[in-house]
């Protein structure tokens, strides 16, 4: 059992949890994730380790309500427990002193890129970040990112904060100005990662994306997270989740992500119809 030590709301439908998991807190590295269940009969879902306090023995998870399981999770409170939290999983992000790195993230992806930004800074890189959200109230970790990077651009889809537009706009402007960019890291929705890949491809800038296929076991056994990278089949849970953006078959990724849409919709509907208030499922 893993106690939720602390919970905070970061934005509508996005919550931060500090969860007791001392071993994971000690060993995790940037880019890794956990697979957890919210109750004994629950499905397994992957969540990135956004931070850790090895002394307190806690890990930080930042979760956006997407469907049934994340809603049950987000209804939990400090003092509640998660039956199992497995990790750290996945290959850590490859970090070294590359020079000037640009890190892009959208939505809850900001929580996922934050540990990568910190690790890049620690390795001596100059880091520019571009973070995007639907609107001002959905921008998360702005203060932390501002503190961590040399240059921060914020974009919103509706123009309510920062630059009006997509995260790709400031990147496009940097490329057009001829800024030297040694490496790009990107975490977010598939269309965003794909657009970033297409922007950097002509410039041959090494670009890493963190892929988010459906994961079940997280140990390379079930095949759920299969992705195609160039002419190779990879399992994102053990070979990734980071891959060369210029080699990713994004079409296949989108297809596979949507494979269980009708079941996911039905599960959410059934759960809502049963008036199964989240509080009833806590512990
Ligand atoms: P559902 O209604 O079941 O599904 C909604 C959509 O989420 C699906 O269409 C599918 O595309 C995706 N999804 C569903 N089940 C899974 C699954 N088992 N594995 C992966 N994707 C799934 N979300 C966060 O909010 N914060 C994070 O830090 C975070 N980190 C992630 C790290 C990795 C490596 C991956 C692969 C995903 C991460 N996600 C993160 C996404 C998160 O796992 C999904 O939003 C969650 O599983 C949805 O579950 P659900 O039951 O609430 O929604
Ligand atoms: Fe099963 Fe990756 S989640 S092989
Ligand atoms: Mg689900």
What descriptors fit this protein?
binds magnesium ion, 283 residues, binds FE2/S2 (inorganic) cluster, seven-stranded mixed sheet, alpha/beta, Rossmann fold, single chain, Elongation Factor Tu (Ef-tu), domain 3
Give the gist of this structure.
It is built from 10 helices and 17 strands. It is α/β, with parallel strands linked by helices and 283 residues long.
Helix-strand layout with pairing:
Layout: E1 2-11, E2 14-20, H1 22-27, E3 33-37, E4 45-48, E5 51-53, E6 58-64, H2 68-74, E7 81-82, E8 84-89, E9 100-106, H3 109-122, E10 126-133, H4 142-148, E11 151-156, E12 163-164, H5 168-176, E13 183-187, H6 190-200, E14 207-210, E15 226-229, E16 232-235, H7 236-239, E17 242-244, H8 250-257, H9 261-273, H10 278-281
Parallel strand pairs: 9-10, 9-13, 10-11, 11-12, 13-14
Antiparallel strand pairs: 1-2, 1-7, 2-6, 3-4, 3-8, 5-6, 14-17, 15-16
Helix pairs in contact: 5-6
How would you sum up this structure, described in words?
This protein is α/β, with parallel strands linked by helices. Among the domains are: 2-91, Translation factors (Elongation Factor Tu (Ef-tu), domain 3, Beta Barrel), CATH 2.40.30; 93-184, 3-Layer(aba) Sandwich (Rossmann fold), CATH 3.40.50.80. The chain has helices at residues 22-27, 68-74, 109-122, 142-148, 168-176, 190-200, 236-239, 250-257, 261-273, 278-281; strands at residues 2-11, 14-20, 33-37, 45-48, 51-53, 58-64, 81-82, 84-89, 100-106, 126-133, 151-156, 163-164, 183-187, 207-210, 226-229, 232-235, 242-244. The strands form 4 sheets. A 7-stranded mixed β-sheet has the order 12-11-10-9-13-14-17, sandwiched between helices. A 5-stranded antiparallel β-sheet has the order 5-6-2-1-7. A 3-stranded antiparallel β-sheet has the order 4-3-8. A hairpin with a 2-residue loop joins strand 1 (2-11) and strand 2 (14-20). Helix 5 packs parallel to helix 6. The radius of gyration is 18 Å and the shape is globular. The mean pLDDT is 95. Residues 33, 45-48, 62-64, 66-70, 108, 111-112, 212-215, 241, 257, 261, 264, 268 line the site of flavin-adenine dinucleotide.
């Amino acid at each position: 059992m893993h106690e939720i030590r602390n919970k905070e709301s970061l934005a509508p439908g996005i919550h931060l949890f500090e969860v007791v998991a001392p071993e994971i807190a000690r060993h995790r590295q940037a880019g890794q994730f956990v697979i957890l269940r919210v109750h004994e009969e629950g499905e397994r879902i992957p969540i990135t380790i956004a931070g850790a306090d090895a002394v307190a023995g806690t890990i930080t998870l930042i979760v956006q309500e997407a469907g049934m399981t994340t809603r049950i999770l987000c209804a939990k409170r400090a003092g509640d427990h998660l039956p199992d939290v497995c990790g750290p999983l996945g290959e850590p992000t490859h970090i070294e002193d590359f020079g000037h790195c640009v890190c892009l993230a959208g939505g809850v992806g900001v929580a996922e890129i934050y540990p990568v930004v910190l690790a890049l800074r620690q390795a001596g890189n100059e880091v520019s970040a571009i973070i995007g959200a639907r609107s001002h109230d959905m921008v998360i970790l702005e203060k932390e990112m501002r503190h961590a990077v040399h240059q921060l651009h914020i974009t919103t889809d509706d123009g309510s904060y920062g630059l009006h537009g997509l995260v790709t706009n400031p990147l496009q402007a940097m490329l057009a100005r001829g800024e030297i960019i040694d490496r790009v890291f990107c975490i977010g929705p598939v269309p965003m990662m794909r657009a970033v890949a297409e922007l950097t491809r002509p410039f041959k800038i090494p670009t890493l994306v963190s892929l988010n296929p459906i994961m079940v076991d997280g140990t390379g056994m079930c095949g759920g997270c299969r992705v195609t990278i160039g002419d190779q089949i990879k399992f994102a849970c053990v070979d990734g989740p980071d891959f060369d953006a210029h080699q990713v078959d994004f079409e296949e990724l989108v297809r596979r992500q949507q494979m269980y849409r009708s079941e996911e919709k039905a599960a959410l509907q059934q759960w809502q119809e049963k008036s199964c208030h989240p509080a009833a499922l806590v512990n």
